[in-house]
Each structure stands twice: as C-alpha cells, then as structure tokens.
C-alpha cells in the first residue's frame, strides 16, 4: 500500500501486486519481502544479493551495517552518515574514489549532498577559507507529530507546529569528502513545518575577492559540465515546493548570491 501511494510524491506509476511473500512491479521478476530484525540473519546469500541498501536509520555505524556482509551481501551502502565507513561518497564529487576494497560506504546525508557539490565548485574556483551553513530543513520521521519524549528536547516538540533549532553534522562531514576543508566548516539546522525539500544557506570567507558574476558563471559551468544532473541552478523566483520531484542533489538559486566587501559570500 505504501509503495502504491505516497503523501509527497503521489501514486506510484506502475502496477504493484503482492503474492505471498513477494511483490511484482508491472509483472516483472518477483521481489522477496522479509521482516527480520537482525540484519545478520537476512537471506542475502540465498538470494544472491550484491548490494544491500541500509536505509533503516538504525544500523548506520560501520560495525552494525557490516551485519549485511555477514548475511552474505557483497557490499553495503548506508543512506546516511556512517561512523567508520570505508568511504563517505557524495555522488558527482568523489564517487570516482570507490575501489573494490570499500565494502561499507556511506552516501552521506541529504544536506551534505546538497552542500558539497556547490562547495567543491567554489573552493576550486575562488577558494574557501572557512564558512558556516544553516539548513532550513523539512521535518523528518525522527520528530513526533505531537509533543513526546526525545533525547534532543528540541526534537521532542510537535514537528508541524514550530520552527525547531537542532544540530547537524552535515557541514563537518564535508571534510570526509573534501579533506582540504576538514575543520573549516560548521553548521546548524532549523526544522520547519514542511514535509519535503530543504534549503541550505551557506556563508563563507573566500581566499580572494570575488563577485556575484564570477560565482554565477562557475556554478553554471559546473551544472552544464562535470556536475550535470547532480548540480542544477534556477534563475526564477521559485520556492521549496517547486522542487518536490527534482532529482538533483543541489539546485543553486542564482538571485540569492550576495558578496560583501569582496570576500564575504552568502549563497
């Protein structure tokens, strides 16, 4: 049912059938469905699983995600930041570093995937001395619909009723993908009452003077070149809802760029 119907993206554009413990999409190959708490006991070997996608949000640390290897999967991709991962990958920026020796990799967070492509372009073009990011972030299922207990008392509050300050490791994680910026970026998060699409507001001190025009040209060149399909840009006055089904990791709002005193930049 939840595959057929989605509150954010609407109806799934294919026929979904359930037969016993399998589902089929448009009459294709049956896909086995299991419900097993311990990933180490999943039937990965029996099913010939090559890559396990760890998307529960529970088994994110490398030692826990590696349970999929124990079960017989050849590789594991964690859809979140993962402590001790063999490599943290932001597609389009450092995916070419993957080797056969990387068994458990992290795909980083959605915020890191939004920030890193832009940071990569601007650091290569003008250089980034240090910077600070604020993500105005849609609520997630880590937040309750009504007030209830949570280890983070900010996140204990009803998600759809307030703007909620909380923490994020997205900016610091940039250093895992771009080692030259390790320790030079930090950030915070404000959760807001929207269900999808978030904003990154990034301010940094450039290593040399620059201009709105230079930044715009660099972003456009990357969007139409090496980062095509990963980094996009818009010159229209769009709002978050307009990007609801957009598959880019990051969309740069051209008219939001500000430069103060030559080297202080806001994007």
TrEMBL record:
Question: Is Ion transport there in the keyword field?
Answer: no
In terms of InterPro entries, this protein maps to: GlycerAld/Erythrose_P_DH, GlycerAld_3-P_DH_AS, GlycerAld_3-P_DH_cat, GlycerAld_3-P_DH_NAD(P)-bd, NAD(P)-bd_dom_sf
One annotated GO molecular function is: oxidoreductase activity, acting on the aldehyde or oxo group of donors, NAD or NADP as acceptor
Q: What Pfam families does UniProt report for this protein, alphabetically?
A: Gp_dh_C (PF02800), Gp_dh_N (PF00044)
Instruction: Cite the Glyceraldehyde 3-phosphate dehydrogenase NAD(P) binding domain residue spans from the record.
Output: 1-110
Tell me which UniProt keywords the record has, alphabetically. Answer: Oxidoreductase
Q: Which SUPFAM superfamilies match?
A: Glyceraldehyde-3-phosphate dehydrogenase-like, C-terminal domain, NAD(P)-binding Rossmann-fold domains
Kindly give the PANTHER family that the UniProt entry links to this protein.
GLYCERALDEHYDE-3-PHOSPHATE DEHYDROGENASE 2
Homology family: Belongs to the glyceraldehyde-3-phosphate dehydrogenase family.
Subunit composition? Homotetramer.
In its UniProt entry, what is this protein called? Answer: Glyceraldehyde 3-phosphate dehydrogenase
Q: Which gene encodes it?
A: gap
């Amino acid at each position: 049912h939840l595959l057929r119907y989605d509150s954010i993206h609407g109806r799934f554009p294919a026929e979904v059938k359930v037969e016993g413990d399998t589902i089929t999409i448009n009459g294709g190959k049956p896909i086995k469905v299991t419900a097993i708490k311990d990933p180490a006991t999943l039937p990965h070997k029996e099913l010939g699983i090559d890559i396990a996608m760890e998307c529960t949000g529970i088994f994110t640390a490398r030692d826990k995600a590696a349970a999929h290897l124990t079960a017989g999967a050849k590789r594991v991709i964690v859809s979140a930041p993962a402590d001790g991962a063999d490599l943290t990958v932001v597609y389009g920026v450092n995916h070419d570093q993957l080797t056969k020796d990387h068994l458990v990799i992290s795909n980083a967070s959605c915020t890191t995937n939004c920030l890193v492509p832009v940071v990569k372009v601007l650091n290569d073009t003008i250089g980034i001395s240090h910077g600070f990011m604020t993500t105005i972030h849609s609520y997630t299922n880590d937040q309750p619909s009504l007030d209830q207990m949570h280890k983070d008392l900010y996140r204990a509050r009803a998600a759809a009723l307030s703007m909620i300050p909380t923490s994020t490791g997205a900016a610091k994680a940039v250093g895992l993908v771009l080692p030259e910026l390790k320790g030079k970026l930090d950030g915070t998060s404000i959760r807001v009452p929207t269900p999808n699409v978030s904003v990154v507001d990034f301010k940094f001190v450039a290593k040399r003077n620059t201009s709105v025009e230079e930044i715009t040209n660099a972003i456009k060149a990357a969007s139409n070149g090496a980062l095509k399909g990963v980094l996009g840009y818009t010159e229209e006055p769009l709002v978050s809802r307009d990007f609801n089904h957009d598959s880019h990791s990051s969309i740069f709002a051209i008219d939001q760029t500000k430069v103060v005193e030559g080297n202080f930049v806001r994007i």
